[in-house]
Design goal:
Aspartate Aminotransferase, domain 2; single chain; globular; seven-stranded mixed sheet; Aspartate Aminotransferase, domain 1; alpha/beta
Length: about 400
């Protein structure tokens, strides 16, 4: 691990970091340990930093194209990681995954169309539907024996009147990776009822042991759109180097037209980052070691929470660097718990309520950080937990 210094504690204050420098504004205190937004506290692969440095040294910061080299890097990555062929002509640039979702919604649906999301899910899913005048339909995932499951009976009923489903796979915040059979069944329903499947797969590369990811474009249905980026995988979210894969030419044209109306253009570093992340062998080696480190962090955090704070229920993720923790047994409502975390535990976590109606008792904790930072956060949480008087 020392080769890539995942144990290195980085000083990120006063760097413009939303995660660190936004604490005072968002949580009311800058003395917290930020374990909230999905932004890791690890140094990116040197191969990516060097490639960006070379690009910066060139002095070329004019308006940029989405280079063919970047598209071929994406198809190389999908072929190697998922044994999935991708036609470079089907790839569109996006200035972020959330803009890609929003532009797809605008391009393919109309006002008051129903769009299904599987809650609890990343809050911007809710926003891109409601802010654009579409009707949000929740298909709640059911938590059964430490695992979230799809309610296919309800989903089929909802698909009869829906225009689109926005899938999150791997799922944020639960860390669930849906199986081939689950995705096949979901796509079959979408095909039967003519529903678009828009799949956010930004966490697809962050898989733990014995877990397989199946891209949505692997299934026989031409009304699917895959959205992804190397940003979570390689900890470069601020570069906004994202993309869509849209196999259907008609859908692709509609999305491109919305992008053009919203002036979507690549920044000067986006293609450079994608190429370095997806084609440089050093980047892949870095990722292999990172996954080992993250899995050890996941197991360590779960073991500590279950042993030291047994009234908290933590869901074991198949992927991502996020823990989804049920705090229902604590004697607090959502606002009281948020205040307790800040004032007693000294932690900034992501509160569950915006993720959906079935998420109000949860908190999301980011374990993508040095082990020492994770332990300090868990120490603070345990100390605050021990002060609680339980009446049962």
């Amino acid at each position: 691990m020392n080769e890539h210094m995942f144990d290195e504690v980085l000083e990120k204050r006063q760097t413009g970091s939303a995660k660190w420098d936004g604490l005072k504004q968002l949580f009311g205190s800058d003395q917290l340990i930020p374990m909230w937004v999905a932004d890791m506290d690890v140094r990116p692969a040197d191969s990516i930093t060097k490639a960006l440095t070379r690009r910066a040294a060139s002095g070329n910061f004019g308006y940029s194209l989405f280079e063919e080299k970047a598209k071929h890097a994406i198809l190389h990555w999908f072929d190697k990681r998922y044994d999935q062929s991708v036609d470079p002509a089907t790839i569109l640039y996006s200035s972020g995954v959330v803009p890609a979702l929003a532009h797809s919604v605008l391009a393919l649906t109309e006002k008051n169309d129903e769009i299904i999301i599987q809650t609890p899910v990343y809050p911007p899913f809710h926003h891109v539907i409601e802010a654009n005048g579409r009707r949000l339909v929740e298909n709640p995932l059911g938590l059964q024996h430490d695992r979230y499951e799809i309610d296919f009976t309800l989903l089929e009923q909802q698909m009869k009147t829906a225009r689109m489903i926005i899938l999150c796979n791997p799922h944020n915040p639960t860390g669930r990776v849906f199986s081939f059979d689950e995705l096949k069944r979901l796509v079959a329903l979408a095909k039967q009822y003519g529903v678009y499947v828009l799949s956010d797969e930004i966490h697809a590369d962050l898989l733990f042991s014995n877990v397989t990811h199946h891209p949505i474009i692997a299934f026989e249905y031409d009304q699917v759109i895959l959205v992804s980026a190397p940003s979570k995988t390689f900890n470069i979210p601020g570069l906004y180097a994202s993309y869509l894969i849209v196999p259907n030419a008609d859908l692709r044209l509609k999305i491109e037209q919305v992008q053009q109306a919203n002036f979507v253009h690549p920044n000067a570093f986006a293609a450079t980052a994608i190429i370095a992340a997806y084609e440089d062998p050093e980047s892949e080696h870095w990722l292999q070691e990172l996954l080992v480190y993250l899995e050890e962090n996941r197991n360590h955090a779960i073991q500590r929470i279950r042993t030291e704070m047994p009234r908290l229920t933590v869901v074991t993720p198949d992927a991502t660097f996020l823990l989804w923790i049920d705090c229902a047994a604590l004697p607090f409502n959502s606002k009281e718990r948020a205040d307790w975390l800040v004032n007693q535990a000294g932690l900034a976590l992501t509160h569950g309520e915006p993720f959906g109606k079935n998420a109000s008792t949860f908190e999301r904790l980011n374990f993508g950080c040095p082990r020492s930072q994770l332990d300090e956060a868990l120490d603070r949480l345990q100390t605050a937990y021990q002060t609680i008087v339980f009446t049962d």
